Amino acid sequence: MIADDHKLIREGIKSLLEEVDDIEILGEVNSCSALEEALMDRLPDVLILDIHMEGRHSGLNFLEMHQDYIGKINILILSMSENISIVKRAIDLGATGYLPKSETSDCIISAIHTVASGALYLAPVISRQLLQTIDSHASAETKGLEKILTKREFTIFCLLGRGLTARKISHKLQVSSSTVSTHMENMKMKLEFSSTAELVRYALQWSVEEYSKAGIRTED
User: Fold this and answer.
1) DSSP state, 195?
2) Which of 6, 10, 107, 146, by CA, is between 20 and 30 Å from 29?
3) pLDDT recorded at residue 87
């Protein structure tokens, strides 16, 4: 389902996705009130949600008011903003992906497939911002994590926080997927998470927090 107050954006996304065999568009809305009505009829696997919408409420307001949908649908935020604080707020409220409108059509399709699988997605432009400073800013929490996790586990944790999937981490570190999975299982146990999704969400939140502490800001 597509929720965006710009008709041209909605039409562009629809035109793109109609060419993808495994994606079905359930509907489109231009406001949060219309979205509330649409979700009463049927829940999509993925909701593409704009931050700025017609009416009183923004996409973030919608998430604040409808936390009951978290876990039932995967929410991909679509926004003109690349502001790290907005990214963090969206993830804190339960969004499973963040995609600036400046990204390519291939990124939109990749983002939809990623969040539909239950994994978190960060657009490359957001990940690059995170990559610029994460190695040079270590907080007290970081030091605490380094004491709890092994060096390899912490490396994988950081890569998860940068938006990499387990498969991409496996390729980057040149280890097997099963090795990455084993390390993630160990991290879940040490950090007391019951699911991989919780671990990945925490890694992403931790990463964004590090950038906020470093004073990173981008233009809206």
Assistant:
1) S
2) 107
3) 81
Give pLDDT, residue 92: 78
What is the β-pairing status of strands 121-122 and 97-100? parallel
Instruction: Determine, yes or no, domain membership for 218.
Output: no
Within-domain flag for 104: yes
Rounded mean pLDDT, 197-206 = 81
Q: Which of 94, 122, 150 is the last residue of a domain?
A: 122
How many CB atoms sit inside 10 A of residue 135's CB?
Answer: 9
Is the model's pLDDT at 66 over the cut of 60?
yes
Distance of CA 102 to the CA centre of its chain: 16
- Residue 87 domain-assigned? yes
Per-residue pLDDT band at 96 (split at 50, 70, 90): confident
Residue pair 9/53 in contact by the 8 Å Cβ criterion: no
- What range does the domain containing 208 cover? 130-213
Give how far Cα 51 sits from Cα of 36, 77, 134, Å: 15, 7, 26
